[in-house]
């Protein structure tokens, strides 16, 4: 069988966002993995985001890469006063509240032309940047990188030429090669930085929030983080459209005003994982069970070994 070797960035884009891409599948992302937007976790997160919207004087919340609108549905229930807009690669899903607006996106780093001139807005990108495809490069000699090529049908890899000058400059600033042995990998963040900047250019007044797997300079993963998920299981990354493909984000390279963990951010927004007093179980059993479920979701969202370790990147925009 003849192999077709292309850069990971190109294969990744097609696998997720091509005509038969993973994110266009009927079952949607929720058919393969759970995020903080889903189920009881999403209800708690929505309440916290409503509080953040108030702090940032936002009356409009835009959810970029919103799947099938799960978080927006929770937001509508918690805060019907907020204007809500979803952005994703599929047509408007059935069952979404009528009050929620919808924009179809081309996918990956590309945003729809209708997303522009946003005022008094909180733009939320929950696990969006980690699925913006980026160049994967490997150290082939001390201080020298080669772009990693992949066969989309088998996942077999080989080395190509060097990254572009812009990508190499990004590495100098954000992912230095000093001390990296041959075989170490770099996930070059230029596409993520550009996507974040483009998203910011659509805002005239408001705030942007990226919530994602991430790392900072001094703690970059030498082996890289590219991985895949299918039906709730981690699988070998093969860009054939049958699995999600994701790599952690160099969050400190993104323009930001605040960089914190999810645990820190949610605690600051009033998310409390404390268990309600047991006495309430006798006086109001239904309310006690509801509070217990909320506390359980809050604990999961703030667990430092799990979702609580996600990074929150907040950028404020005020253009005249």
UniProtKB/TrEMBL annotation:
Query: Any idea which UniProt keywords this protein has?
Result: Methyltransferase, Transferase
Which residues fall in a coiled-coil region? none
Q: Which GO terms describe its biological process?
A: methylation
**What molecular functions are annotated in GO for this chain?**
methyltransferase activity
Q: Which Pfam families does its entry note?
A: Methyltransf_28
Q: What is this protein called?
A: SAM-dependent methyltransferase
Q: What is the lineage of its organism?
A: Bacteria, Bacillati, Actinomycetota, Actinomycetes, Micrococcales
């Amino acid at each position: 069988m003849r192999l077709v070797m292309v850069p990971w960035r190109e294969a990744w884009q097609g696998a997720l966002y091509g005509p038969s891409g993973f994110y266009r599948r009927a079952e949607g992302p929720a058919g393969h993995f759970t995020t903080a937007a889903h189920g009881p976790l999403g209800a708690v997160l929505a309440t916290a985001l409503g509080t953040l919207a108030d702090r940032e004087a936002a009356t409009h919340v835009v959810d970029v890469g919103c799947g099938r609108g799960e978080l927006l549905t929770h937001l509508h229930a918690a805060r019907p006063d907020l204007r809500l807009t979803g952005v994703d690669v599929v047509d408007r899903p059935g069952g979404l509240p009528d009050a929620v607006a919808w924009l179809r996106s081309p996918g990956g780093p590309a945003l729809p032309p209708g997303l522009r001139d946003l005022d008094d807005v909180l733009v939320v990108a929950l696990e969006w940047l980690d699925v913006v495809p980026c160049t994967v490069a490997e150290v082939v000699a001390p201080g020298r990188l080669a772009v990693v090529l992949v066969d989309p049908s088998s996942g077999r890899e080989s080395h190509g030429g060097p990254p572009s000058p812009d990508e190499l400059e990004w590495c100098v600033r954000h992912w230095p090669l000093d001390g990296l042995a041959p075989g170490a990998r770099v996930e070059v963040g230029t596409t993520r930085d550009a996507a974040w900047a483009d998203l910011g250019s659509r805002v005239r007044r408001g705030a942007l929030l990226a919530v994602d797997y991430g790392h900072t300079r001094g703690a970059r993963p030498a082996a890289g983080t590219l991985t895949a998920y299918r039906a709730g299981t981690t699988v070998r990354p093969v860009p054939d459209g049958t699995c999600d493909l994701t790599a952690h984000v160099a969050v400190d390279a993104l323009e930001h005003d605040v960089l914190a963990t999810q645990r820190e951010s949610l605690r600051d927004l009033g998310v409390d994982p404390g268990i309600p007093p047991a006495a309430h179980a006798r006086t109001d059993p239904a309310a006690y069970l509801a509070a217990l479920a909320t506390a359980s979701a809050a604990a999961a969202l703030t667990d430092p070994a799990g979702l609580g370790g996600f990074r929150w990147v907040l950028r404020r925009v005020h253009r005249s």
